[in-house]
Amino acid sequence: RPALRRDAAENRARMIDAAGRAFAAQGPTAGMEDIACLAGVGPATLYRRFPTKEALVTELVEVFYDKLVTLAEEAGRQPPGEGLDRFLRTVGRLIAGSRGYLPGTWGELARPAQVAHLRGITDRLLSEARRAGVVNDQVTVTDIAMVVWGIRGVVETSGAAAPDAWQRHLDVVMAGLRTPHIAFSRPPLDTGQVDRMTSEPHDSP
After folding, report:
1. Is residue 100 predicted with pLDDT exceeding 70?
2. Given 1.10.600, 3.30.70, 1.10.357, 2.60.40, which CATH number is that of 58-199?
């Protein structure tokens, strides 16, 4: 029985990895049979674990958020003031790597508990950056959420034509966040507004 459980876990991991690669290469039109072939399992095995493509994408989003949390926790172990920048750059690479399927779905399919946990860690990274004097004191955690959405937007629109464009975009944004004295034209969004934004469907390109 332990061997069967281990085999099942390994099959699941292969299916999720294969789905990510297939969607990244083909977009949301990637077929379940293609994914099964990439994973080295039969279509029946894939459908038994994930009855629909939507169920598979939902699982991918959960894995995506788990990776975000891991990245945030790793960034928190950086020297004081460096964690936020490290986190945003690794998030950018993760989003760019999921181009083709996750950018249009990862907000509305995420579990509220995952979102809340990630927000708490991000808030700590931001507080450390403010104390270190590398981020303007007026910047809030919802501003950081919008920075991530900005990365997502650049990834979506640049596509294969300029796959690394998000990196310069983030350089410019981070330079702005470091500006010590600036008069913001609008107050920051509250967390309720951000939650409503992320829960609304957005079409993938």
Report:
1. no
2. 1.10.357
